[in-house]
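Propose amino acids for all 507 sites.
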């Protein structure tokens, strides 16, 4: 008798599950959205995951073959991440409503609710996110960035020494790796005042651990949990040893440094301006401000979010410059005209920072590189916390509205001849014809990247200081045009290689 009760209960559970799944996978179609063919167990996610370059071609195929026209401007498509509805759109009015004008409704990222989620900006929700973001925003003000410039310049000096060796020996160097060392040295110091040595020691503990952690952020259990959200609890418990273990190592470093600072004060000399110290100052004496857990979680996320993205943007930009000697020449001319051989006093560095952030052609080149090779290429989104009608489209509660960055940045209607590297697209004369919401490397709205100023400064400083000394050519072993893929959430060159030959400039 017990057996038949158990079998009946199991049958009821399965039938209910099948019914619910069937309903969930028809929500968008019933509202008139066009959806690519759906798999009953995986929704559309498997096609994205299986794609050989990490989803980039799949996104383009979906938007080209299945998306409907949406008004006179743009397209719209529905798809399912497991049973959860997702909307991709390129319509600027629709995107502006979601990401900017109605950002109070669309406030959260569509992240999985994992039991080991950490309370940092990327994961936080609702009012908790708003509070932490408003406390952390001043950490990235232009005044603070200018102070961090000296750390960046010191780290770029080390890079310059490494590049000089390659120039003297006429050997090709893997700039993807070199820039990863640079950005981790910078973020280690700007984030935690931690003297790390990632550029000269490829076995540096932080470098090894951060690489490992990034690999594990998008583990297979996260994908299975997207297919079957009901299994999330057990899956993240089973996987605690992997992702959680490496996360914990970095978090406990941050925590150790925080405790030492609290106990002994900051190191002798001028008060440090790393973001850990800035967060501690922001929390001082006010229990309503940041807790220690929030401080270490955000120190952790600055390291993860600030390292690979900036390195990727630098590596692709240097590749593009090497592949386009006419652009390289024009950029060098701008640098030589505007940037004096400078000293390193705080005042000189502040002046350098101001000039660099204002250099028109450098800005055009960097933006065009971010358009062609956006470091977070696939998508980012917001979750509808209630049913909404946006530009005449019903967006049901629980839907993730996402910007398909890769497609938008290469849409020939928005960017004619999209695979042509043409910094003139961002020239002052053409800038007005760039369509709204068509250039989104750092996201959009109140939740866009908090580190964009930091990344811009670091990347532009590195480009300027290197181009003052070197020119770049494509290495004999590079594949040109470069092959790329999306790994985890970040774009990268295939085989993790961007091979270039630096040459010392004759001045
Ligand atoms: C070229 C370099 C970078 C690129 C392309 C980039 C891109 C992005 C994108 C696309 C988002 C999502 C925005 C959205 O949902 O609207 C984001 C969020 C974020 N980024 Fe960056 N990022 C870069 C560098 C950095 C750096 C240097 C830091 C920190 C030091 C950083 C920290 C963050 C954080 C904390 C968030 C979450 C913000 C929030 O939810 O409030 N990023 N970034």
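Proposal:
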């Amino acid at each position: 008798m017990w057996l038949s009760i158990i079998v009946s209960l199991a049958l009821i559970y399965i039938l209910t599950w099948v019914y619910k799944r069937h309903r969930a996978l028809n929500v968008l179609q019933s509202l008139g959205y066009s959806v690519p063919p759906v798999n009953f167990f995986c929704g559309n996610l498997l096609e994205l995951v299986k794609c050989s370059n990490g989803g980039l071609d799949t996104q383009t195929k979906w938007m080209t073959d299945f998306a409907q026209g949406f008004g006179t401007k743009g397209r719209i498509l529905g798809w399912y991440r497991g049973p959860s509805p997702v909307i991709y759109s390129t319509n600027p009015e629709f995107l502006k409503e979601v990401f900017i004008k109605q950002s109070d409704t669309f406030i959260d990222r569509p992240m999985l609710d994992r039991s080991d989620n950490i309370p940092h900006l990327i994961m936080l929700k609702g009012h908790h996110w708003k509070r932490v973001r408003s406390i952390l925003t001043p950490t990235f003000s232009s005044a603070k960035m200018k102070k961090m410039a000296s750390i960046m310049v010191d780290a770029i000096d080390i890079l310059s020494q490494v590049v000089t060796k390659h120039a003297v020996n006429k050997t090709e160097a893997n700039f993807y790796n070199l820039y990863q060392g640079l950005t981790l040295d910078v973020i280690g110091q700007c984030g935690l005042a931690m003297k790390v040595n990632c550029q000269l020691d490829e076995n540096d503990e932080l470098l090894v651990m951060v690489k490992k952690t990034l690999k594990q952020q998008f583990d297979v259990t996260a994908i299975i949990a997207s297919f079957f959200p009901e299994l999330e609890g057990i899956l993240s418990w089973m996987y605690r040893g992997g992702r959680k273990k490496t996360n914990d190592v970095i978090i406990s470093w941050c925590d150790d440094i925080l405790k030492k600072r609290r106990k002994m004060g900051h190191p002798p000399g001028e008060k440090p301006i790393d973001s850990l110290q800035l967060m501690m100052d922001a929390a001082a004496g006010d229990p309503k401000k940041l807790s220690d857990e929030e401080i270490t979680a955000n120190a952790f996320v600055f390291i993860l979010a600030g390292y690979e993205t900036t390195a990727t943007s630098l590596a692709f930009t240097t590749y593009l410059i090497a592949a386009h000697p006419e652009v390289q020449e024009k950029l060098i001319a701008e640098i030589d005209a505007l940037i004096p051989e400078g000293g390193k006093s705080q005042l000189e560095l502040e002046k350098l920072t101001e000039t660099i952030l204002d250099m028109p052609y450098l800005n055009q080149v960097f933006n065009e590189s971010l358009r062609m090779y956006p470091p977070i290429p696939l998508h980012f989104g917001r979750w509808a916390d209630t049913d909404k009608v946006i530009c005449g489209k019903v967006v049901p509660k629980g839907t993730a509205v996402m910007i398909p960055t890769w497609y938008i940045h290469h849409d020939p209607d928005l960017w004619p001849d999209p695979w042509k590297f043409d910094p003139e697209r961002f020239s002052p004369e053409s800038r007005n014809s760039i369509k709204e919401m068509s250039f989104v490397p750092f996201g959009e709205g109140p939740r866009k990247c908090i580190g964009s100023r930091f990344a811009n400064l670091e990347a532009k400083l590195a480009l300027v200081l290197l181009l003052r000394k070197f020119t770049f050519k494509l290495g004999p072993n590079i594949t040109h045009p470069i092959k790329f893929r999306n790994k985890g959430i970040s774009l990268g060159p295939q085989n993790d290689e961007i091979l270039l030959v630096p040459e010392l400039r004759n001045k």
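The longest helix spans residues 292-323. The mean pLDDT is 88.
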